[in-house]
Amino acid sequence: MSRHLDRISQHSFICSALSPDSIVFDFGANQGEFSLNIIEKYGCRVFAAEPVLALCDSMRRHERLSLHRIAIGKNGEIVDLIVNDDDVLSSTVLDHDVAESVLGTSNSLRTITETCLDLAAFRELNGIDHVDLVKVDIEGAELDLFETTSDHALRSCGQLTVEFHDYWYPDLATRTERAKQRLCDLGFRMIRFTPNNKDIVFVNPEIIRLSFLDWQYLEKVSRHLNYCGRGARVMANRLFRKRAA
Fold first, then answer.
1. Which residues of 190-204 are buried (b: 16+ CB within 10 A; e: fewer)?
2. Which of 48, 62, 74, 235 would be a feasible disulfide site paired with 26, CB 3.0-4.6 Å?
3. What is the pLDDT of residue 34?
4. Chain segment 119-160, per-residue pLDDT in tens
């Protein structure tokens, strides 16, 4: 791990750009692991969005955390979110038949209806004019977010650490590639830390200024070290399960 890089809740980001003055948005806060760790490690001010009431209720509160029970996606769009009542760990905007394969059987799934905010609207809600880090883990709705949020709002971000979900839902692959390309066309430098699209950071070099050597290390060395580390952990887990069986 380089001096510039950290990872929390499987989301990599440029930690050297963060300080107690930094503003962080946590889209898909779940039980608050990312938000609370960012606060504890870097002292940032965090604004979190999580649409599932049970997850909001379970989240530990902090004076530097502002939590909104709200969905993120295309601004103003009313969406149906599929939630698993037996194991409330996430929700998804994807079709019921698709969600069942990931979130559980139909007997435990229910639908909640929410109105979405996009990045610009969430920023306005909180009176924020720029964001240093945006974490995006919203179970398929990231595509609506990146397809519809304005160029200006996206360029106001120092970096975005994103989990795309085409590894679970292959039908999202084409839209995922378009979303990645749009961010790159807006000037973000993309660093992918997994062979799939599960852990990608998009860095705005106009806001986060690193040396040529630092960029080279992040893009050529850190990402490959991460590949190897994750591959080793997968193999170790498989061997452990095989021996346990």
1. ebbbbeebbbbbbbb
2. 48
3. 98
4. 999 999 999 999 999 999 998 899 999 999 999 999 999 999
User: What is the Cα–Cα distance from 179 to 1, expressed in whole angstroms?
Assistant: 27
CA distance 150 to 182: 11
Helix, strand, or coil (residue 84): strand
Q: Tokens for 202? A: 């998009």
Question: What is the distance between the alpha carbons of residues 66 and 162, in angstroms, rounded to a whole number?
Answer: 21
The structure's pTM equals 0.85
> How far apart are the C-alpha atoms of 17 and 50, rounded to whole Å?
25
Is 191 in contact with 201 (CB distance < 8 Å)?
A: yes
- Record: fold of 5-209: Rossmann fold (3.40.50)
Element (H, E) at 115: strand 109-117
- Give domain limits for the chain: 5-209
DSSP string computed for 130-149? -BSEEEE--TTTHHHHHHHS
Rounded to whole angstroms, how far apart are CA atoms 242 and 236?
10
Distance CA 234, CA 75 (A): 38
